[in-house]
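Minutes, project check-in
Item: structure for the 417-residue chain
Input as provided by the requester:
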Amino acid sequence: MAGVSWSAGPRRTGLNRFIPELGYWYRPSQLLNTTTVKLTVPTETRAGERRVALVPDVVKKLVATGWDVVVQSGAGVEAAFSDDAYAGAGATVVPDAAAAHQGAGLVVRVNAPDAGAADLVPADAVVLSFFQPAQSVEALRILAGRGVTVFSFDQLPRISRAQAMDALSSQSTVSGYRAGLTAAEHLAKFFPMLMTSAGTVPPAKVLVMGVGVAGLQAIATARRLGAVVKAYDVRAAAKEEAESLGATFLDLGVSAEGAGGYARELTEEELVRQRTALASEVGASDAVITTAAVPGRTAPILVTEDMVDGMAPGAVVVDMAADSGGNCALTQVGTVVDHHGVHVVGMANPASGMPTHASFFYARNVANVLGLMGPEGALAPDWDDEIVSGMCVLRQGKATSPGAIEALGGSGEGSAP
């Protein structure tokens, strides 16, 4: 049978072991499969995606630890990684997606597969990627029907032990940097203060909404470019981090601390208070960068049309949450909307716009997950580990996460027993 056998196997005992080729420790777990697993890296199927799940440097290290790595031809080209580089790292390069998936035990992707790619995944195989069930229902149904196990970086527990595996954070770093650059590119003014013989230009005033990883990187980038930055977040804990980067933190009297370091969803009353307090700050800003997102939900509207009306012509709103609905009422994904002279930029898949380093980070996140689940080229997930169980969307075709259960209708066929 293609894929991986998940029947109980022998338990490997002993102390934690260090894998020098990868540079991390792993905790021995119950080995469910002791044979070398074919790890495949297909070309991404999401429109406009330029990232690749593994880069040659990481492939070389995985091959050294026992993985049989197969890469679809052209998978890394958009991220500036050639087929020859993968072959030189020890991977087998195959011509198409069908050949890449044939006999695969583990499929590593950046995004969830579309229906066509899902249909190529062998029965009982494992998929590791970003995977939001509500956005990939058809693929989820196909994978569930094939008895596939799916692990999603979207569900990685936010604990210290998982930091090196946190692809959400690594990709948000890229996205926040790009948001700062995008604001500077679209703004009709300089970011830094300039003193010239022709006169003095004051620095741009930038407001960053949402001080998570992406927001902090946007603050740092705007500051490096010379802007005066204010920051806002409903989490009081974000104040110190924003101020450490030189931003002025806005306290609007609305707090919404949520689980796992995220903000919870605001009530309608809280949203009204927030928007009222933000209106004057938005109107006084040359550039507004929004990064607010609630996991698994539509992004909250922080910037209303009335707020944009209050901004000066030539100002810009950069919406990093466009893919999940947007933080600005005027946002259109992948489009620059000109609203009475104010440009509203809906960033689509922002991390993909810097594919080389985004892939560099992501590949290391993947390697660290495999260090936990699959040392020495053999998948060995310890289901008692909160990282393993937390990341799991499907286990042998059975839904294990609330999102997957809901997406599959809560049926016995698609739900965990």
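Outcome recorded: The first strand starts at residue 17 and ends at 19.
No further action items on this chain.
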